[in-house]
Amino acid sequence: MSLEIPSPRGLLIDGEWLAADRMTTLYSPYDGAAIAEVPQAGAAEVSRAVAAARDALRADRFDRATRIAVLDAAVEGLGRRKEEFARTIAVECAKPIRTARLEAERTIDTFSFAAAEARTYTGDMVPLDAAASGQGKVAFTLRVPVGVVAAIAPFNFPLNLVAHKVAPAIAVGCPVVLKPASQTPLSSLLLAELLLDAGLPPGWLNVVPGGGAEVGDALVREPDVAYVTFTGSPGVGWGIAARAPKKKVRLELGSNAPLIVDADSDWETAAVKAASAGFVQAGQSCVSTQRIYVHAAVAARFREALVAGVAGLKVGDPLAEDVDVSALISAKDALRVESWIGEAIGGGARADIGGERIGNVVTPAVLSDVTATMRVQAEEIFGPVVTLTEFADFDTALDLANDSRYGLNAGVYTNDIGKALKTVRRLEFGSVYVNDVPTVRADQQPYGGVKDSGNTREGPRYAMAEMTEPRLVTLR
Question: Which residue ranges does UniProt annotate as crossing the membrane (predicted)?
Fold first, then answer.
């Protein structure tokens, strides 16, 4: 894999690139090659970054028109440097280059939607004179910034999920201290460089790479942080919420997304789409299709079509133009996925295809004859694995889909409008997709889940609501 990724300029604090006392070498998840030397922040740098963000907010010199201009300039800059960002994504997290380009395109959308919302986002008129006590008064709400935002980002979408935290914050005037994932800081630092070039004033975005136990914890505990936005695992996310009971903590967590395929549906299309949706980013997506429930009447044909689609996926170097699936993010994760597959097969499951580990790559796997208690079914595998379970009764399929501690995205294929309506009412998920796979996210939609999948909705407009508070103003 040809790298050619420049090392970062330093930590970004208060508009300046600062040298760090510690550096760490970043390695390719795909082949172990050294990628870059990355500065590491500590608690002192976190405190300094938060203070810079606090002071920027207090100075109040970043008006709406300027914020819009910065967002617009970011859109233009991302368009010009799209291939540079895509290549950086591909190298640092082993995302196939074609998929990385799609992430760069989506990031442009995220900033575009934030810029559009910033132009019109406002409070409401309050009809005080609808009550006798309000006669002679005019009232309205202002949407005011909640305060300093601590953004803790994941590795799997290292550019666009950072954008979903940073762009809405800029739109409403909240300064940000960003901790990128340890394996994927390069995209964040490159985006920060672009935003400075776009006119972002000092202090409004500060980037402090480092480990979660040190940098993440210090950031959460900082008294001047008012809002924490975290994307990652439920254990870490709910732990953050427990440690910061007086802060606004918003979590976008994991899932083991179900797909129901009924007998009366376009199951052929469902099989084609599932053959991709279960393996995007090597299955390392919160909405990766994982649990597939197929009606017994079409199960054999669906399995055959799915396995044929999976067999056609190209596995290898993320920078190769024809590759569909590459490495997992670490050796630890590749070993874990291999172990869970072996555990399932040992318990009676069957591998219809795949499941072999070659370094950090696990070949795309389809498992049949799984049980509800197997970890490949009950937990979020976060790897290139889908499971197949037959059902005879549609209501049973809905119950099986709901039998999870997660509730992010779910999909159903059916041509029966009655079943479709029943599905959207009964499935306990943040999003339900009819005649589509659950591996779907439009960047302007309200995106998030229930249960152990989190407690928020992202998307620029919805994140902007979370990052502001209504302030009532009355005039007599």
Answer: none
**Contacts of residue 95, Cβ cutoff 8 Å, sequence gap at least 6:** 89, 103, 281, 318, 326
CA distance 401 to 122: 39
pLDDT in tens, 401-454: 999 999 999 999 999 999 999 999 999 999 999 999 999 999 999 999 999 999
CA atoms within 13 A on the CB side of 29: 32
Q: Which of 252, 380, 390, 458 is catalytic?
A: 252
- Among 447, 450, 440, CA closest to 406: 450
Question: What's CA 289's distance to the chain center, in Å?
Answer: 15
Catalytic status, residue 117: no
Together in a domain, 324 and 438: yes
In a domain, 449, yes or no: no
pTM of the model: 0.97
237 inside domain: yes
On the question of pLDDT at 2 being above 60, the answer is no
Verify whether residue 252 is a known catalytic residue.
yes
Which residue range forms the structural domain that includes residue 81?
Answer: 11-253+454-475
Confidence at residue 5, expressed as pLDDT on a 0 to 100 scale: 78
Ramachandran sector of residue 209 (left: φ over 0; alpha: ψ -120 to 50; beta: rest): beta
Out of 286, 390, 458, 466, the active site residue is: 286
Q: Which residues pair with 126 in a beta bridge?
A: 139
Indicate if 106 and 238 belong to the same structural domain: yes
Task: Give the chain's domain count.
Answer: 2
